[in-house]
Amino acid sequence: MSSSVRGELKIRNWRHSWGERTLIMGIVNVTPDSFSGDGIVDARRAVDHAIEQTENGADLVDLGAESTRPGHQPVAAKEELERLLPVLKALRKRSQCVVSVDTTKAEVLEAAFAAGADILNSIWGLTGGLLSVVRDLTLPVVLMHNKNEPRYEGNVVTEVCEHLLRQADIAISAGIKPENIILDPGIGFGKTAEHNLLILHSLDKLVELGFPTLLGTSRKSFIGKLTGKSANDRLHGTAASVALAIGAGIDMVRVHDVQPIVEVVTVADAIVRGTRPDGW
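The structure assignment produced for this chain is given below.
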């Protein structure tokens, strides 16, 4: 599907035509219990890290103030906001970068938007009042597939795609534009390592749904299971998954290690999407 048909992502004065190139979302975890040990609870350091991500080539940064790793301990909206808002407000004073907020709470999203957030990234889709907030604020949204247990009656790829398509249809029925609906298969969420590999092998099925897409494989446990590497030493495995995802047509990748992944994206995009650097 051409980028003109799929439309544009429009955020303030920033524009991106879907399919033109691969976007990079830099991860900023404002939590003490991130699975990869990269959580930053000090607001100043978190802001510095977000700025560094953009300077290294991230198109947008994703702020998360509640860990979503397997077995994580949920936090109340009050605590999530106490972690998130100081970072978001301070970041906005220093940068006009595009900011995504990783939350599942309508209360947190509303407060984050008021403080300058641009996109919702929800690991459980538009639940718990999020749909009405996204609709009323006309926010782009990342809808991710998730399950409490990695149990599937049939083909995991089929179930993931059907679930995401239902979520997208609900969002469209509520008045959300298709170009503002970004689908994420949820690698590592309610899935075994084998499930993750099956989904990655069939990313074309996700792309064929016609919506913008996001993939988050960075430092995930299936890479560790394949390579034997610890969470903070999975860059090469992550890079392989990113390159293959771009080959399948994925629009955005969510990563911890922005600077080296920029090189992966640059080369993969040149081959797959026909992009060229300035001065080529």
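Interim note for the steering committee: The longest strand covers residues 23-29. Residues 3-272 form a domain with the TIM Barrel fold (CATH 3.20.20.20).
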